[in-house]
Amino acid sequence: MVGKMIKIRWHRHACFEISNDKVLVFDPHDGASIGIPPPKVKADIILISHDHFDHNQARIVEKDGSIVVREGKEIDGVKIEAFRAYHDKERGRRRGEITIFKVLFEGIKLCHLGDIGEILDDEAIEKIGEVDILFIPVGGTFTVNAEEALEMCKKFKTKVIVPMHYKIEGLSLPIERVDEFLEKTDYEIRYVGDEIEIEKEDLPKEKEIWVFSL
Question: What is the pTM of this model?
């Protein structure tokens, strides 16, 4: 499974669709509960980082035969690794644990950090290993904020950084906009619309930030 084109589409918040012949969806929300439109996609594989209402609405994207994933496994050639982390800086005492997913899909390594609330140490980042595309929350309050996210981005071996879980129009959660994250970075910033099609060969040689927009 190397060399095929994949599509990455943002369904707002922390919900991303990764697809070609198969459709993967990370952290689906229902839209209505947080003031934004629901994801309009049906997934073969649904990855749930934790059981908070704005991340675990598998029913919204389910179809006959959908597989809901909360741990590491391999499904039809799609390799999924899972790593435990905390939703806060108090070892989960406030908001519990989350699952970080690293997915190998068509030769591209995607890592979705869910609602991570702690700054991962070097050992944890080393364990996750090299990735091609890193999805990282930047909005603060419930997750790491812009400055903390950038600190982790510097440590990760990745080609593309995708900010997520930040304030957008309609969203009812009290989190910050993406602007602060972008203003603090020295990485090149690329605006890609709400979806992009890529092959592994299209990935940049140096770290870039890809901002998905509506």
Answer: 0.94
